[in-house]
Write the structure tokens for this entry.
Amino acid sequence: MTPVRRRADATENRARIIEAARAELARDADIRLNAVAQRAGVGQGTLYRHFPTRADLLAEVYRADVDELVAAAPQLLARHDPLTALRAWFGRVAAYAEVKRGVFAALEVATWQDLSAHSLGPIGDAVTLLLDAGKAAGVIRPDVDARDVIILIGYLSRLDAAEFDARGRHLLEVVLDGLRYRD
């Protein structure tokens, strides 16, 4: 299948719409499309040309966040030791989970299943990359795998918005502490 080729201005508009939707989701899971269009500086027609439905827009925000999360793993490993890279990646996971909670609340079950299939494989690969680097450096337990970590951090999308800031990052530190290798 040939990828869709867009004009440069259309590509920029699409990116601004996705970023505006992400910002609106961070503010309120029940986003209004006219607020997204206004924040992105585009008309309603432009928004609907790119995203015919609210679900299409939310799914694209989710996909973009998954792609960024996955791409961050090797970048972090290139700049940090494995444990610091994993900690920094967990920080990105927390931000991703805030959006994920809003997206899943707004999407239908069938769309959610499609999004899960898109994210679990690549996210598992990113976690495996980080864990393998930590195991090779002797700082991550040898008995954990990506599925263990994904199950453990799955709680993030289930935290209430009111308790997310207070508990989310703290619990990621607890998970990270549990992943450390000890003699």
Observations:
- The radius of gyration is 18 Å.
